[in-house]
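Handout, page 2. Input:
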Amino acid sequence: MQLQRLLPPDLPERAALALEVHARPSETLAAPARASHVAVLIDADARDEELEHLRRLCRQCHVSPPLAGDQQWSGNLGALRMVWERHGEFSTYTVLVAGHADAPFAQVAAARLPSGWLAGLPGSTVHACHAEILPAPTGQDIDWAHLQQSAFGGNLLVASEIGGGVALACSDFRLHVDGFGRCLLFDCGMDPMLAGRMLQRLLEIEVYRMMALLAFPMARRLSPRIQAIEQSLAALTDDIARAGSDTDDDGDATLLAPLTRLAAEVESGLSASQFRFGACRAYAELVRTRIEELRERRLPGHQSIGEFMARRFTPAVATVATVSQRLHDLSERVSQASHLLSTRVGIASERQNNALLASMDRRARLQLRLQQTVEGLSVAAIVYYLAGVVGYLVKGGEALGLPLNTPMVVGLSVPLFALFALFAVRRARRHAHDSGAD
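Output:
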């Protein structure tokens, strides 16, 4: 009987999100067993090549290969089992083989792969580690001194009880001549599922540690440059203060160019480093979480994994965090200095504009006065010209015998001509003003 659907339509990502918490399950392992774990940093454009490389191995061993879009795959390749997982920036390959050799790390699991296949993986190796799960010696303590010499080349061991005492883990956290690290896990009563989880956590601690430390060289390269920028910014800030006290507007404008250059350098450093620095914080948090999940108990005479990371790994992460914070603080300080200087340059420009407007206003008033003077002279010239014309006409009439008094006629015409000239000049001025307004 088909059940009736009681829910509204699913979110498109619902199924994928529900399966995400079940992704990358740990393998079930029983002691004795061997594992080789490799993490490869790979570019996004090489993902198809990576998948094809794995598919060729699957076809060679006659097993079903991963499909396009798969983020993980596991399968049995004859006597060994391989687990492939694709992460955001890197991919991991874990080879598992049951049983153990005559001595730890005498026969590693990766040696069972076809010759050259592992070396042909696209990308760059971030971390590689050989691990073995061995039964804990019954009725006797582990000979740590012998183990240190025989399995770890005499390197100082980091060891602790994990899982509340169900296992012992030890490693030297060093690269050996084959490029792999080494890790031993002694089974003191783990079930196969717990053994797989413990081994997975130990391997992930190393991978995430290396991924977090990718930011450390960048932080060390940036640190001297940040110090130089801080000194330059301090000098520029002093120059800004002196320019402000001296009221040197040209000095403010001159300081904008080097300040802009410093801002560009800081932003360039931020854009180039913040992804790596942000990834460092995320990976360091994963390392801390995985160490907590081990539930370590300290062994007398040995550093625990948590203590080792606190002494060696945590300071490097703190350096990265400090450099990142210095870059952000420097960006904010440069922005504040730029804002201050831009404000002062803007105020200086406003003062110059106000002075220019005042000068233009004075010129306009002078031009108005000059125009009024010219208008007055124009009125006088027009009256004089018209009076002269009238004078000539009246004299002509007198010559013709007309009874006219030339001085009287000219004198009476002057006020009339003056009123006419004033009216004409004002009308012309009003017409010019209306035309300019349009």
